[in-house]
Design brief:
Helix content is 60%, strand content 5%. It has 460 residues and is mainly α. A two-stranded antiparallel ribbon has the order 1-2. Strand 3, helix 9 and strand 4 form a beta-alpha-beta unit. It binds arginine. Arginine binds next to helix 7. InterPro entries: Arg_succ_lyase_C, Argininosuccinate_lyase, Fumarase/histidase_N, Fumarate_lyase_CS, Fumarate_lyase_fam, Fumarate_lyase_N, L-Aspartase-like. Pathway: Amino-acid biosynthesis; L-arginine biosynthesis; L-arginine from L-ornithine and carbamoyl phosphate: step 3/3.
């Protein structure tokens, strides 16, 4: 089979095995839109500097628009003889408008800068989509936070009961993680905002081109100042892969907790029927498959990051064919992030919070012990270490009696340092609201935290 693109140089035709191995069309056809708008921007730039005539430009644009239409109508023939989406579109353009004009499009451009540009445009678009989905997720979390400021639940450290908190305070933790994820994506967007187009193979071109113009048409803030860097850089893809990996670290923690909290051991919440699955054998089962799948998909997004880091490691400048391996993993991570964030948000919107079970759980594990110690420090001027000892002793006595300290009616019976009035120390809501430090679990602090998040969302 004859590969027309480089037949000038070669005597022998490509082996079919090579064609198949070398082709990336199946993967990079995903970039068809970016390739077409990239080519239109390049053609406009060529026309502005006299390389193309106006009617040649018009023909090229018409041809490219027709190709876009053909692809979207499913009429375009993807043939791996054309190797990748860039060559496939260029070949089809020459079929439509003739190679006299079609053949001019690749002036002052190489596939190296073309592919870097298309890929970067895709990465920018994906950053924006994921930011939008995270924003929706934060909104859902805020709506729970507004409703559950006095829904008491235990917090955990080492997965052991720690102190009472509200469900609002708990769930807001995730909103702040997703807020940082958005900020990281915004940083990625800013770093990716420099166009590689016009870098050509690696050293620029002898034509008097106007790279700033094509950059501007494509919505880039500016151009990459060094052509060699322009074609060698894949940091923008690594940034997105890393950012998605961190998002999945966060969603995997949230999903893990949804799985634990919806189990009969906890019973803190119920995942709705519409987002639960049954078992083929056990009629009673309700399985949290959505959460498990999102937790499991963390594996592939970490893998995709490590894969591209490894591809890029120690790669000599400038373009090397290794870099063709950059796309599959990124496309996969972006799709995984999109699908997972959409379903996670839809699932979260329908969870049911079981207040009573959360409260019952607070009555195990002596959650109020720290409040008692803090009281002794604050009101009785007892050093914290001593207070810790006194309260530890009360906990030990309660355990011997088989009760939780929240069930004690008269603390004075346990240690005379406490008088009758101190009974209010053993109230969960009082414990929450006694917190004075910034960022604490108190109702007032939770309200402030919601404001911070809302202001952030408004700024987007
Ligand atoms: N399909 C290639 C890729 O995705 C396009 C770049 C090819 N450049 C080259 N010099 N062979 O990376």
């Amino acid at each position: 089979m004859k590969n027309e693109m480089w037949s000038g140089r070669f005597n022998e035709l490509s082996d079919e095995l090579l064609q198949e191995f070398n082709a990336s069309l199946d993967t990079d056809k995903n970039l068809y839109k970016e390739d077409i708008i990239g080519s239109i921007a390049h053609a406009r730039m060529l026309e502005s500097c006299g390389v193309l005539k106006k009617e040649e430009l018009d023909n090229i644009i018409k041809g490219l628009n027709q190709i876009q239409n053909e692809i979207e109508q499913g009429e375009f023939i993807f043939d791996i003889k054309n190797e990748d989406i860039h060559m496939a579109i260029e070949k089809r353009l020459s079929d439509i408008i003739g190679s006299e004009i079609g053949g001019k499009l690749h002036t002052a451009r190489s596939r190296n800068d073309q592919v870097a540009t298309d890929f970067k445009l895709f990465v920018k678009k994906s950053n924006i989509e994921i930011i939008f989905l995270l924003k929706e997720l934060i909104k859902t979390i805020i709506s729970y936070a507004k409703k559950h400021k006095t829904t008491i639940m235990p917090s955990f450290t080492h997965l052991q009961h720690a102190q009472p908190i509200s469900f609002s305070f708990y769930i807001l933790t995730y909103a702040f993680m997703f807020m940082r994820d958005i900020k990281r994506l915004q940083n990625g967007l800013e770093l990716a905002d420099y166009s590689p187009l016009g870098s050509c193979a690696c050293a620029g071109t002898s034509y008097q081109t106007n790279r700033k113009l094509s950059a501007q048409i494509l919505g880039f803030k500016d151009i990459m100042p060094n052509a060699m860097d322009g074609v060698s850089d894949r940091d923008f893809a690594l940034d997105l892969l890393y950012n998605i990996a961190v998002i999945f670290t966060h969603t995997s923690r949230l999903c893990e907790e949804m799985i634990l909290f919806s189990s009969s051991e906890y019973g803190f919440l119920t995942i709705s029927d519409s987002f639960s699955t049954g078992s083929s054998i056990m009629p009673q089962k309700r399985n949290p498959d959505v959460c498990e799948l999102i937790r499991g998909k963390t594996g592939r997004v970490y893998g995709n990051l490590i894969s591209l880091l490894t591809i890029m490691k120690a790669l000599p400048l400038a373009y090397n064919k290794d870099m063709q391996e950059d796309k599959e993993g990124l496309f996969d991570s972006v799709k995984t992030a999109r699908d997972s964030l959409v379903i996670l948000n839809a699932m979260l919107k329908k969870i049911q919070i079981n207040k009573e079970n959360m409260l019952q759980s607070c009555k195990k594990g002596h959650l109020l012990a720290t409040d008692l110690a803090d009281y002794l420090v604050r009101e009785k001027n007892i050093p914290f270490r001593k207070a810790h000892f006194i309260v530890g002793n009360i906990v030990a006595q309660a355990e011997r009696k088989g009760i939780d300290i929240s069930e004690i009616k008269d603390l004075g019976e346990f240690d005379p340092v406490f008088d009758k009035k101190t009974i209010e120390l053993l109230d969960f809501e009082n414990s929450l609201n006694s917190k004075k430090s910034e960022g604490s679990s108190s109702k007032a602090s939770v309200e402030k935290q919601i404001k911070i998040l809302e202001r952030f969302l408004d700024s987007l």
